């Protein structure tokens, strides 16, 4: 159950980051002002996802050592890189992919210790 909560915290955090990216894409060039920004559904989705992710993360910290739980959030780097590449057509070079591979190895290694 704890690992499922950790996965949910990761996914919600990533969804929040993706929603933030969608929100600011509408603001390219200049900030539209607070009133207009606060009417963005993407911004509110980001707040909801990040808030829910935080609450679940707190439950995870009750059950896992922070030295195990926190490095698992490295999966967020992997997921956000994939989202950037496939949702936003952002370039990802070989060095970046190497970094992603190293993160995955580290997360796997720490997961085996838990």
From TrEMBL:
<dbReference type="InterPro" id="IPR045324">
    <property type="entry name" value="Small_multidrug_res"/>
</dbReference>
<dbReference type="InterPro" id="IPR022883">
    <property type="entry name" value="Flippase_ArnE"/>
</dbReference>
<dbReference type="GO" id="GO:0009245">
    <property type="term" value="P:lipid A biosynthetic process"/>
</dbReference>
<keyword id="KW-0448">Lipopolysaccharide biosynthesis</keyword>
<keyword id="KW-0812">Transmembrane</keyword>
<comment type="function">
    <text>Translocates 4-amino-4-deoxy-L-arabinose-phosphoundecaprenol (alpha-L-Ara4N-phosphoundecaprenol) from the cytoplasmic to the periplasmic side of the inner membrane.</text>
</comment>
<keyword id="KW-1133">Transmembrane helix</keyword>
<feature type="transmembrane region" description="Helical">
    <location>
        <begin position="40"/>
        <end position="61"/>
    </location>
</feature>
<keyword id="KW-0444">Lipid biosynthesis</keyword>
<dbReference type="GO" id="GO:0009103">
    <property type="term" value="P:lipopolysaccharide biosynthetic process"/>
</dbReference>
<comment type="subunit">
    <text>Heterodimer of ArnE and ArnF.</text>
</comment>
<feature type="transmembrane region" description="Helical">
    <location>
        <begin position="94"/>
        <end position="111"/>
    </location>
</feature>
<dbReference type="GO" id="GO:0005886">
    <property type="term" value="C:plasma membrane"/>
</dbReference>
<dbReference type="InterPro" id="IPR037185">
    <property type="entry name" value="EmrE-like"/>
</dbReference>
<dbReference type="InterPro" id="IPR000390">
    <property type="entry name" value="Small_drug/metabolite_transptr"/>
</dbReference>
<keyword id="KW-0472">Membrane</keyword>
<feature type="transmembrane region" description="Helical">
    <location>
        <begin position="68"/>
        <end position="88"/>
    </location>
</feature>
<protein>
    <recommendedName>
        <fullName>Probable 4-amino-4-deoxy-L-arabinose-phosphoundecaprenol flippase subunit ArnE</fullName>
    </recommendedName>
</protein>
<keyword id="KW-1003">Cell membrane</keyword>
<keyword id="KW-0813">Transport</keyword>
<comment type="pathway">
    <text>Bacterial outer membrane biogenesis; lipopolysaccharide biosynthesis.</text>
</comment>
<keyword id="KW-0441">Lipid A biosynthesis</keyword>
<dbReference type="GO" id="GO:1901505">
    <property type="term" value="F:carbohydrate derivative transmembrane transporter activity"/>
</dbReference>
<dbReference type="Pfam" id="PF00893">
    <property type="entry name" value="Multi_Drug_Res"/>
</dbReference>
<keyword id="KW-0443">Lipid metabolism</keyword>
<comment type="similarity">
    <text>Belongs to the ArnE family.</text>
</comment>
<keyword id="KW-0997">Cell inner membrane</keyword>
